[in-house]
């Protein structure tokens, strides 16, 4: 298939492109041209300006794609600007668990319905991230029903290539002996590995499903379990203090995403415990090399 990927030059976008190539697809990546990619002559490239509708018509709008992936749709205006120019059979948007207002263990897709949510045309900066993502999904499913569309909702995506370094934060502070302020040590939190996220997205290209679908590694972990492991491996103790650096996952209550729909369609996610401790080991090595 002829596939366009918008946002495929870093993090799980790289894994998405690699998974698509491994499946034999013809892949074009669309970027602003500011960042180099790692794909060499395996992909084609086009330069776009996401916020310029006329540019999108002149670039993306010139060709038909069997599938378009959009990893950088953050608002309803992002959806409108792109889909008004797009010619494709299938559109797959990377969405987020943040669309769920009441997150809990085994949060299901039905708990946010973008087809009935009040739509507001907005830019990313007009609302907090979670509301802007809700508006993006709402615009997609309410205004553009002619597309066979999918919103893939993911929890926290982590990996050695995670540029946010949220998990790395905990390792770093323990090894450096910096006080940390945490308010959710024992909450059980869901994650997905960046490679698994990319593979799941790529798998969706060949499916007939349209609508919202969750992705999530099987299982959860608490920050207490993370910290206990790092303490054991480094022989250092976390220092807790209300005056310390605030943890990036502060405020997050116990939650993960129900993936029975994806399982029913035939996709199997990795077990969280099969990769997260190896990832923590790599974070420890990276941190110790930096000291």
Structure overview:
The chain has 291 residues and is of the alpha/beta class. The protein has two domains: 2-156 and 193-214, NAD(P)-binding Rossmann-like Domain (Rossmann fold, 3-Layer(aba) Sandwich); 159-189 and 218-290, UDP-galactose 4-epimerase, domain 1, CATH 3.90.25.10. The chain has helices spanning 12-22, 53-58, 76-83, 129-143, 166-176, 194-203, 223-234, 260-265, 276-290; strands at 2-6, 26-31, 44-47, 65-70, 88-96, 148-154, 156-158, 179-181, 188-189, 191-193, 211-214, 221-222, 239-240, 245-246. It has a seven-stranded parallel β-sheet with strand order 3-2-1-4-5-6-11, with helices on both faces. Helix 3 (76-83) links the parallel strand 4 (65-70) and strand 5 (88-96). Helix 1 (12-22) packs across helix 6, helix 3 runs parallel beside helix 4 (129-143) and helix 7 (223-234) crosses helix 9. It is globular. The relative contact order is 0.15. Its cofactor is NAD(+). This is UDP-glucose 4-epimerase.
The CATH architecture category of the largest domain equals: 3-Layer(aba) Sandwich
* Distance separating the two termini: 47 Å
CATH topology of the largest domain: Rossmann fold
Q: In the CATH hierarchy, what is the class of the largest domain?
A: Alpha Beta
Strand element count? 14
Give the spatial strand order of the biggest sheet. Answer: 3-2-1-4-5-6-11
Number of helices: 9
Radius of gyration, CA atoms, in whole angstroms:
20 Å
Tell me about the largest β-sheet: 7 strands, parallel
Order of SSEs, N→C?
EHEEHEHEHEEHEEEHEEHEEHH
Percent helix among the residues?
25-40%
Low-confidence stretches: none
Q: Give me the secondary-structure category.
A: alpha/beta
Backbone shape: globular
Oligomer: single chain
Tally of individual domains: 2
Strand content: 15-25%
Q: What is the H level of CATH, i.e. the homologous superfamily of the largest domain?
A: NAD(P)-binding Rossmann-like Domain
Name the average pLDDT: 95
EC number: 5.1.3.2
InterPro entries: Epimerase_deHydtase, NAD(P)-bd_dom_sf
Domain NAD-dependent epimerase/dehydratase: 3-212
Pathway: Carbohydrate metabolism; galactose metabolism
């Amino acid at each position: 298939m002829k596939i366009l990927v918008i946002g495929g030059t870093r993090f799980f976008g790289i894994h998405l492109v690699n998974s698509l190539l491994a499946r034999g697809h013809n892949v074009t990546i669309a970027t602003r041209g500011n960042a180099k990619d790692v794909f060499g002559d395996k992909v084609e490239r086009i330069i776009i300006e996401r916020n310029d509708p006329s540019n999108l018509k002149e670039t993306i709008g010139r060709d038909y794609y069997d599938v378009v992936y959009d990893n950088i749709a953050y608002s309803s205006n992002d959806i409108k600007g792109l889909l008004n120019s797009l010619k494709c059979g299938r559109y797959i948007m990377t969405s987020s668990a943040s669309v769920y207002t009441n997150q809990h263990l085994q949060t299901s897709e039905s708990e946010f319905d973008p087809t009935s949510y009040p739509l507001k045309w907005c830019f990313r900066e007009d609302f907090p991230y979670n509301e802007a993502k809700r508006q993006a999904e709402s615009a997609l499913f309410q205004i553009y029903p002619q597309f066979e569309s999918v919103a893939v909702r993911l929890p926290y995506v982590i990996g050695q290539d995670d540029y946010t370094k949220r998990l790395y934060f905990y390792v770093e502070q323990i090894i450096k002996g910096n006080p940390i302020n945490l308010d959710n040590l024992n909450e059980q939190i869901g994650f997905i590995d960046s490679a698994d996220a990319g593979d799941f997205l790529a798998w969706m290209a060949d499916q007939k499903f349209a609508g919202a679908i969750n992705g999530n590694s099987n299982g959860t972990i608490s920050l207490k379990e993370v910290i206990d492991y790092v303490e054991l491996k480094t022989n250092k103790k976390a220092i807790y203090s209300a005056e310390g650096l605030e943890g990036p996952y502060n405020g997050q209550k116990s939650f993960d995403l129900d993936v029975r729909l994806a399982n029913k369609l035939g996709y199997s996610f990795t077990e969280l415990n099969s990769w997260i401790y190896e990832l923590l080991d790599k974070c420890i090595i990276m941190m110790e090399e930096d000291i």
